[in-house]
Batch of 3 targets.
Target 1
Amino acid sequence: MEVDLPWFADLSAEERSWVGLIVQAGIQDFIEWFKQDTGSLAFSQVREASLFGGTPQTLAGTISLHQTVDLIRLSFDVVEQNLESIIDPEDLDMVHDAILRYGREAAFATAEVYARAAEVRGAWDARLEALVVDAVLRDETDDAVLSRASAVGWGARGEVAVVLGAVPEERTEAGLVDAVRRAARGAGMDALGAVQGHRLVVILGGVAHPEKAATAIVHLFGDGPVVVGPVAADLGHAYLSAQAASAGLRAAAGWPGAPRPVLSEDLLPERILAGDDGARMEAIDSVYEPLAQARGTLVETLSAYFDNGSSIEPTARALFVHPNTVRYRLGQVADLTGLTPSRPRDALTLQLALTLGRL
């Protein structure tokens, strides 16, 4: 083993002893099986237990399936090479055939052992990931949660955004989260996912542009709106993105023509009308306050613009200024808020922000 299997020498003394016991158990079990019925192809659970029953489960995490197959292949090669020295010539073919049958069944049993271990790990990882996502949504992200996130593959690379949408009908929960993780990895991002009722929650890490990031996974959601929250600094602050995305998903029905995915900030007027206090504060802080604190009379000009049917000439007459002055001030509004007064949705947001600011 030390000569032909390079990884064997890297094992600890205890692990090497366990490998030796597996090989010894395999040879002894073959002898017992051969005594009982050389014509039987069955490899029962009793055979499997005699091979791996005494081996600690931690060994499966140390030696990979590929390494175990190499170990079995080497063991049977050595046995076959020494058959002629210990078996009568007239029995040689029969024993050789029995070893081939036993080796095939042992290989299948080995694969089954690793498959069951992978299923258990996968189920545990899925539960752990769901707990992490739930903790993030409830703003309970402490060091233990961050450690659990790392255990399920979270790399904590860069900024974070939360994406919410419906669960597709045709996918299982485990398969859906795996598909989300693969799609995010293909786009250079980390991902944590969980299904909560009829809602799929995805936390993306390494996000530069939230809308572009959500586009990489939007096809995995079910029918209906898919909302992405604003970028947060890290997983510990991802609840801020989750709160905005959750409020946006509740209010998305108010904008039937919304793009997919849609930013929670683009749903600001719907969120305000739905009673989202966070949206109201966002409208005051990011829209009204910059206008109120700017030089000039931007709030007065914007109010007059809306009072006069969003028309430049009547607004200029009402303010006793030149129309170009009105155009200049409206341009300043767009620069400060990112909202263009002449666009209907932006105008709605601006009007709601003006009302909230006055209140």
Target 2
Amino acid sequence: MKNILVTGVAGMIGSHLIDVLLEKGYNVIGIDNLSYGKLENIKHNLDNSNFKFHRVDVTDFNAMAILAKDVEIIVHLAAFKKIGENDAAMPTFDINGKGTENVLQAAKMWGCKVIYASTSDVYGMSPDLPLNEDGDLLLGPSMIRRWAYAVSKLYGEQMAFAYYHDYNVPVVVIRYFGGFSPRSSFAWSGGHVPIFIRSILNNEPVIIHGDGSQTRSMGFVNDLVSGTVLAMENENAIGEIINIGNDEELSVFDTAKMVHEIANTGHELKINFIPMAEVFGKYKDIMRRIPDLQKAKKILGYEPKVKLEEAIRLTIKEINSKA
């Protein structure tokens, strides 16, 4: 029975991940500072004898070093995402930089394998679609602070491979594409689909940045968790970067229409288009984002199973059941 440490355990992916890990018989230590994650997401596991939760920040190295002792695998999900130009950038660099360094240092100390959660944001504005792990990355100007998140996660990738090559720490880098579930943050940090669901169920205007023609590939959390577990358990994934997500591409505007149709509230769809510049300044939105999943399929045997329409339906059903 392996011991697993999950950072960011009370977040959307983390909370669903431990459901699966506990079901598979792992012992799980979960940490979260609850700045993004919610205790409600993991409360059903708090009485499980194979799960221990600690309210700890990943920037606290001493706590990380103590909790990582006797752990075989660390799944590092904890992160901070800067959204708009008016948000402070330093928490993004501090948590995503120092926090990741602490995880890797603890893994080096105790001989742990690390699954590092990166993001499709690191591809930036790359025109090479579908986005491939071996492709070049294209980020925008440094003075545009919206890139802070992508840069911080890319720094984490480079640091992970430095520990892999320099200190023989086994690492797997996962680049998650967008995902959601009923436990998503229903704020912009959780992506556009949960925001649209909340707005439509509450008969509020759906806010769309730009004209909504930008496309995304959004997956259900079950598929993200499945890919994560496969990366944990497959030794062939060590030293690799692997895309995990859904390759079903749909525009933001069409996604809003799909959510409205599935929700079937009886109200008209109200949309409020907001110019990009009002939210992101001079940042240019990424117009298309779709993953190449061939590597995930080849190394992990990974293939997304939940279509976007079904994922939206499942999320709305659970939200309505709790209303």
Target 3
Amino acid sequence: MSPVPPGTANGRALPIPLDRVPPWVLVLVTAGLVVLARLAGSEVYRETLRFLAAGVSTTLFLTVASFAVALGVGLVAALLRLSRSAFLRTVAVLYVEVVRGVPLLVLLLYIAFVVTPWLADVTGVRWWRDNVVRAVMGLGIGYGAYLAEVYRAGIEAIPRGQVEAALSLGLSRPQTLRHVVLPQALRIVLPPLGNDFVALLKDSSLASVISVTELTYSGNLNVARTFRSFETYNAVALLYLCMTLAGSAGVRLLERATRAPGWGAFTP
């Protein structure tokens, strides 16, 4: 009698071969099912999760908005750092080194209580005083310095010969950057960008110090009104874990998509 191949049941292939599933995933799924069963059977946890729901939505918005700002700021800083102009390179290096040398919490407080109030007074725009806007600017500028180095590494990884070949074919430097360099660089930097997105999701909890009602701040409010620290912070930690695991899974799917033949190829 021939043995049943691993990853099959009754001769049929399983959707997910069990022999390829890492042990830590099985442990995590088992623990998650136990926790979910516990939450479903407790009115205290259900009430806590209902209270924290608004904080989850604010955390997700804060993360996506801040990461969008960081992507734009980081790309501009990386291009300036690779510029032929010594002045522009100096400005970019100064931004990267100063921002990376200051703790993110200190940078967030500085932007929230120094930079944005000044901008509100100068421009007369009131929304600069909104705490969510302050948090998005602080986190976006802070992470932009790290993404600038990620972009720069990806751009410099493209062989110089490809750039010279594109220029010899008549493409301008902006066209070469858009059609030849950036698509290939994006494939290279996608894993670290995904890691930074997950890290930003967790660091969004720093916005609680400026009274943004994200998940951590909502948890503190729930403890203040119910005095249930154990249940509240259990729920907060579980929600962060679920969001980070979902984000990591999304990054892996995106990485697989970029490995498809022809992805990032030159398209005039």
